[in-house]
Amino acid sequence: MGRANVWLKRTFIVVISLIAIISLLLLGFSLFSHGHLHQQEEAEREIAVIHVMYVIAAVIILLTIFGAIGVWKEIRWALIVYAVGMILSSLLMLGLNIQGLASQSQVRQDVKKQYLNLLPLVNATEFLDDIQTELECCGLESYRDWKFNIPNSCLCTDKSTNPC
User: Fold this and answer.
1) Partner of 37 for a Cys bridge, out of 7, 11, 43, 109, CB 3.0 to 4.6 A?
2) What DSSP string runs through 28-83?
3) Which of 65 and 156 is assigned the larger pLDDT?
4) What is the pLDDT of residue 118?
5) Per-residue pLDDT tens over the stretch 75-104
6) Cα separations (Å) of 73 from 1, 61, 70, 135, 145?
7) What pLDDT does residue 161 have?
8) Within 13 A of 109's CA, how many CA atoms are on the CB side?
9) How far apart, in whole angstroms, are the C-alpha atoms of residue 82 and residue 69?
10) Cα 143 to Cα 77: distance, rounded to the nearest angstrom
């Protein structure tokens, strides 16, 4: 392998370092989200997504290690592994984003259907009451979803940013 320009080498190391930092942040976010989702009752689907995030972060960290070794020691095969791996992971992420955008309306309908199965909301959990307080809304469609037991989270306050 020919002698590489020192500035090209340094630039590559800086870019690899930034990618490694971002993937470490993704790994930290995955750990935090996993701990947060563990407290919820039915989070099997979300935890599967967290496991995918673990794998993506680990693969990116591993690829950046290959890239850093390839640049530092000037090993061609390590740079090829890094380049091919990053291209494939970028294509995978692009495909997952396209799939997510395509199924966004279906996910909305599924969530609405799941919450409509809770009607009447009298039997709903505190979790739904907390969501109403945070989002300043009442019920799924309107306050009528609660029948005659309207909770305190449906009461309007003066400091509300979204008045009733």
Assistant:
1) 43
2) HHHHHHHHHHTTSSS-HHHHHHHHHHHHHHHHHHHHHHHHHHHHHHT-HHHHHHHH
3) 65
4) 63
5) 999 999 999 999 999 999 899 899 988 888
6) 11, 18, 6, 54, 66
7) 61
8) 4
9) 10
10) 63
Q: What is the pLDDT of residues 45-78, one digit of tens each?
A: 778 888 888 999 999 999 999 999 999 898 999 9
Q: How far is CA 75 from the centre of its chain?
A: 35
The residue type of 149 is N
Q: Phi first, then psi: what are they for 86, rounded to 5°?
A: -70, -35
> How far apart are alpha carbons 15 and 63 in whole angstroms?
13
**Whole-angstrom distance, CA of residue 15 vs CA of residue 7:** 12
Supply 114's token pair: 């799941």
Q: From its phi and psi, is residue 150 left (phi > 0), alpha (psi between -120 and 50) or beta? A: beta
